[in-house]
Every structure is written in C-alpha cells, then in structure tokens.
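Onboarding guide, step 5: your first structure request.
Type a short instruction followed by the sequence, for example:

Predict the 3D structure of this protein.
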Amino acid sequence: MDFLLKNESIVVEVKRTRQGLGAREVGNQLMEDIWRYKRHPNCKQLICFVYDPDSRIANPRGLENDLNEEEDGFLVKVLIVPRED
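The system replies with structure tokens like these:
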C-alpha cells in the first residue's frame, strides 16, 4: 500500500512501468491489488496511478477500462499516464 487516506477510506497504489514490467505484468499486479483491497476494512476506493514514461503499455485506455469498476460500494479507478490521446 503506497498511501492510505483512512478517514476517506481511499487507498492509492502507484506503479511505474520498466523493462520486465509492461502491460501484462502491471495488469496482473493491479488485479491482485484490487482483490486484496476489496477485503481491506479501511478501503472503499482504490486509486491506481501507473506512470508509463516509455509507453510500454500499448493500449492504456483499454487496460484502464478493463480494470475500472464500481461494485458493492467499492470503486476502482486506474489512471495510466502520460496519455497519448
């Protein structure tokens, strides 16, 4: 967990792509994070910030759309930057 805003029930997870950590690996890590934080008693919102300075993620909007969700009062928002659109 990178940041916990306990009073707001928000967890912020930060990742950076690099060699060996591209779209598939980041996606898998984020899915694990989502699963874990859904069960965390102080988390109702998970904000995932992925810094991708070398554009290793070929379809950042697709990955965001695949992972963004709102279910049973739990919100996931994934932001991959820099944006190319």
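Each response can be followed by summary notes, for example: The chain has a mean pLDDT of 94.
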